[in-house]
Structure formats: structure tokens, C-alpha cells
């Protein structure tokens, strides 16, 4: 184990190392407060998908029209693809010590990031947490026969406490859940595969249909990419001398593996479930086929995992709201403002979930994931290109928080590359029941927008960035010395 991976247990002068309510929000984490092992990321991203929403993702994939076997193949490839980009974002956390979206200011500008990237990020948190709310309410209703709205309220209350305590508790809870979840997932997997209920010939490949295959691929890749706007929030307390490759692999492998496991499990369970069954009902039926009563245990376990993700979404939504406000009027990143913004998230999500209803879950969730994927593909390309190929990890932290600093109020390079990238993707998009782009229609409904948006947005930003005075920025970063005094340029 390297020195960078040692977990020092001494308290910092600020007491940040205690298990109390987290003090930091959108501000930079000082080097004296960096702590933890890079391996801690393994638990948080392994458990990250092992919940009712991850399971429901697999249920929705099978409803897209591909056979079970082709759904599984598309799921595996989509998860490996989407997690690749997400894990590189995770690697930014230890190097910068900043929340993911704050680091968008050098590309999009102090105000520009707030009215483009951060607004979309807030929609991301609300959309995913609304899906979580629908499932948590359905699960509480199934387990305790309480109304769905009350079930969400109880679940959200627990998640809110976890979100308020923040980084250390979120990591701790996911670490505690890891091995119990492995056992539960193994039992449910056995029930799904060997408990009966699967139709005869369900594993017959059938004809390959590129349209439905790409729908599943984009949906699953989008789910994994959905972590990108906040993945480094959970690595930003790690020490900056941890190598990029260590952070990458401790994020990529656990997230990709657990994602594939739970997505495929959801698809298999859905194949054996009655038509119209909700994801929660399908899970209960499958598990009870193996051992009576196992269904309730499985729902309870994945509900606990869901509470952790609800907390992560509330935590991330809180940081995003604070970032947006701070871009127009400087705010002190206090515990109080975190509590207020978390409460706003809770009320907003509950209201939307009440309007949507669990009966519309599959339609709502499928479109939320796909639309958010489209919105974040150009951002992820621009952010990663800037970090790894343009500025190579060299940023001036104080200027990121300076409204009139070197990064400007409106970063025309990032915003223009983003808009052109999104426009280039639009003809290739497929939003089921809402929109099919002309090129996608000409291709028979095949969605290949991801393969367009990534190179267009990233390539254009790389060209636009040629006019930056990078030498001057590097001198300022070295003089500031906040990131690490012996820092070298970061390379992927």
C-alpha cells in the first residue's frame, strides 16, 4: 500500500475528520483535511447501483423490445462504455479537492456554468430522485402497507439525515452494505435463474435488431454516465498524490460490475414477471419463488441501498443549488445552507413524484435517463478534454471562485462547443414516444447520438482552447500551490 492510500485517523484542526455533520460544501478541501483510502471508492460505487433504481433499470431495458439475450449483450456493452467516462471524472476529485460541477467554471465561465451545466445537473438530481421516490414509496407500500406518499416521506427523511451528515457517513454506509448486498444479490440471482417462471426458449437469441439494441445501449450507458456530474464529489477528500489510474480503476471496475449484475438481474426477473408488474412487484415474485418470504427481504435490502442513493442525490442536488446561487451572489458554504437546499430537494421531488405516480414509472424513468444522457454527453466530453488534454490538471483554485477571474464570467469556448455538440446530436436522437431525429429515422430508429456528441463537443473544445494562455495559467497555479506543492501535469 502506498503512502497516499494510508488512512490517517488523526483529527484536523477544523474537526472535519469527526463523524459529525459535514462542514464543507462547494468549497475547496484543504490538504490538511484530506484522508481515506482510494479503495473506499470501491464500496461506494459497487453499492451505488445495487438498489431498486438499478434493478428497475434492467426491468425497463427488457421493455424496449429486444430479446433477453440481446438485451443482456447491449447492457454489458453499454455499462462498460458509460462507466469509462464516469470513472475518469472520479479521478479529478483527489487532484482538485473540488465538487465536480464547480470544476466546470474554467470551461464554461463563472456564470456560464450556472445557467447551462448546473441547471441541467439540478434537473438530473431531481429526475433521478423522483424515480427513487416512486420506487421507495412502492417498496414501503409493499412491505408495510403504508400509502406511497407516506412511504416516500419516511424514506426521504432517512436519506435527508444521511445527506446532511455528508461525505464520511455516505462512504461508511456504503462500506457496511457491501457484503450483505453481495449475499442478497446472489440469492435473488439464484431465484431469477433457477426458481422457475422463465418462459421456454427465453434465451433463444432471435433476430438481431440494431434499433432496439441501441435503445438499450444508450439507456444503460446513460445511467452510468448519470453519475458523472457528481462522481468526484465522493473522491475529493482523498489525498492528491493518489495516482489517476488508481482512482479510475477503483471506480470503474466496481461500478461497471455491479451495474451489469443488477441490470441483467432486472431484465431476467422482468422476463418471468406478469405483464404490467412494477419493478418492486416483479422482484418480490421472483424471490418468493425460491424461498417464501425472500421477496420481502430482497425488497428491504434494495430499499436500503436506494436510501443511500437518495442521500447521494440530495447531497449532490444541494451542492448544485448552492453553486448556482453562489454564481450570482456569493454565499458562505455553511451547514445551514446545506440543510435548506436539501429540504428544497425533498419537497420538490415529493411533489413531482406525486404527480407522476408509480404506474407511469417505466415511461417516466426511461425518458428521464435518455434526455439527461443527451444533455450531459457534450459536457462530459468538454470537461474531460479540458482536464486531461488542455490544462492537464493545472487549475488556479482561487480563480475558480473569483467571479471576474482568469476563467471569465462566460466561457465562450465551453458553451459554444456544448451547443454545437448538442445540435449535432439532435438529428440522431430517439426519445421514445416523443421525438425521433431525421437521421435516426432514416436509419430505422437507430440512436447513435452518443457516438456523435462525444467527438464533436470534445474535438471542437480542443480546437477552441488553442487560444488560451496556458503557460500563464500554469505559473499562477504553481505560485498558488494549493493543489499540491510537488504537482506534475495530470495525464490520462
From TrEMBL:
It is a multi-pass membrane protein. It is found in: Membrane. InterPro entries: Pur-cyt_permease, Pur-cyt_permease_Fcy2/21/22. Pfam families: Transp_cyt_pur (PF02133). It comes from the Bacteria. The chain crosses the membrane at residues 43-62, 68-88, 108-128, 148-167, 179-198, 210-228, 249-273, 293-315, 336-357, 363-389, 416-436, 442-465. Keywords: Membrane, Transmembrane, Transmembrane helix, Transport. Belongs to the purine-cytosine permease (2.A.39) family. This is Purine-cytosine permease family protein. It comes from Nonomuraea spiralis. The lineage of its organism: Bacteria, Bacillati, Actinomycetota, Actinomycetes, Streptosporangiales.
